[in-house]
Design a protein that fits this description.
This protein has 2 helices and 8 strands; from the N terminus they run βαββββββαβ. By secondary structure, it is α+β, with helices and mostly antiparallel strands. The N terminus is likely disordered.
Length: about 180
C-alpha cells in the first residue's frame, strides 16, 4: 500500500472504528492522529533529547483527515511537548492572517490569537494535549482529562465522533499527569 505523507487516513495508521470496540474521547482520538502525523513527518521524536532545537517549537499546515489544518507544538520542559491541532482551518478567513506586528497569527499558541467570537468563521475544532517523553511515552491524562483549550464549531462534534479510531505510533494514548 502506498504511504501518503499528507493523508493520515490511510489504513497503515488507523484501525477502522467498525472493527474496534474501544470507546475513546473524540478529542483525544483527534490528537492521537496529530501526534502520529508529527512523528511520521519527523517534526518531533518520542525520544527525549535535552535541548534538541528540532523539537522545541514549530507548526505545520497540512491536509489532516481530509481537511486543511494546523498542528503546532512547543517544548514545555521536563520532556513534555504541548501539541495543538486546529482542524478545518481556513487561513484566508482568519481575521489576523494578514495584519502586522504582534497581532498577526504566529501559530505558537494552543489556540488561534483571534477572539473566540471569530473562530466559527475559520476553524472547526481546536484541542491540545501534553505528550510525555521523559518518564514514558504517552499523552497525559485519560478520556477528556488533560485535553485542554477545546473549541468546537457547531456541528463538528458529531463528525469527530464518526472518525476512525487512531492507533498511536509508538506511544500510549493515556498516562499519568505530571505535576
Amino acid at each position: 500500500m502506498e504511504n501518503k505523507k499528507n493523508d493520515i487516513t490511510n489504513e497503515a495508521t488507523i484501525v477502522k472504528s467498525s472493527t474496534e470496540s474501544v470507546k475513546i474521547d473524540p478529542y483525544r482520538n483527534l490528537l492521537i492522529g496529530a501526534v502520529n502525523e508529527l512523528i511520521e513527518r519527523e517534526h518531533i521524536s518520542l525520544e527525549f533529547e535535552k535541548n534538541d532545537p528540532k523539537q522545541e517549537t514549530g507548526h505545520i499546515f497540512l491536509n489532516f483527515l481530509g481537511h486543511n489544518s494546523v498542528i503546532n507544538w512547543r517544548n514545555i520542559g521536563y520532556g513534555e511537548l504541548r501539541i495543538s491541532l486546529w482542524w478545518k482551518y481556513d487561513h484566508s478567513r482568519h481575521p489576523q492572517a494578514n495584519v502586522e506586528g504582534n497581532s498577526k497569527e504566529c501559530f505558537q499558541t494552543s489556540q488561534p490569537l483571534a477572539k473566540k467570537q471569530h473562530f466559527p468563521n475559520f476553524v472547526g475544532v481546536v484541542a491540545s494535549c501534553w505528550l510525555e517523553r521523559k518518564d514514558g511515552r504517552y499523552i497525559q491524562g485519560e478520556k477528556r482529562d488533560s485535553i485542554f483549550d477545546i473549541y468546537t464549531r457547531k456541528g463538528e462534534l458529531s463528525l469527530l465522533k464518526e472518525l476512525a479510531i487512531q492507533k498511536p505510533n509508538g506511544y500510549e494514548i493515556s498516562g499519568p499527569i505530571r505535576l
